[in-house]
Amino acid sequence: MKIILMSDSHGRNHLIDEIMEKHKDADAFLHCGDIECDEYVYPNMRIVRGNNDYYADFPEKMKIRMGPFRVLMLHSHLCYARDRLTYLSKMAKEEGCDTVFFGHTHVACDKVVNGIRLINPGSLYYSRDGRPISYCIITVDNDMQVEFKFAPFE
Q: What is the pLDDT confidence band of residue 123, given thresholds at 50, 70 and 90?
């Protein structure tokens, strides 16, 4: 299984379109918010609401089953900035999830906090960590092993 995880594209749909064209073999496309377009533009993409998604009717968060993993996906703009990762790990446990996909910070992240895997694919607009803008390629093999690979946008 191949999943493409994106976040914070801020209306730059041409970047999303290029990524989707490059990864036609993907089983799913996910967006962690601040896509800044109407929900009908990407009907087959699972998208959560970001703080700049004023006009679309996206959910604040969603749970996704990914192989044996239960994923909580949200933008994270409503989390405590000071201790965001701890807050997200606590929220995931309360929701019965073991993984969190989140955006908002424009900083790529792959950390484990309190036993919860936290993944931020980075941003497709204005990276704040000194790295190129990025997204994440997630693969789940037949043994249900998961690999997260950050892909700089080229």
A: very high
| CB burial of residue 126 (10 Å; 0-12, 13-18, 19+) | exposed
2 contact partners, CB below 8 Å, separation of at least 6: 23, 25, 26, 27, 137, 138, 139
pTM summary value: 0.94
Do residues 84 and 67 make contact, with C-beta atoms less than 8 angstroms apart? no
Tell me the one-letter amino acid at 4.
I
Confidence bin at 48 (pLDDT 50/70/90): very high
**Could you tell me if 29 and 42 are in contact, meaning their C-beta atoms sit under 8 angstroms apart?**
yes
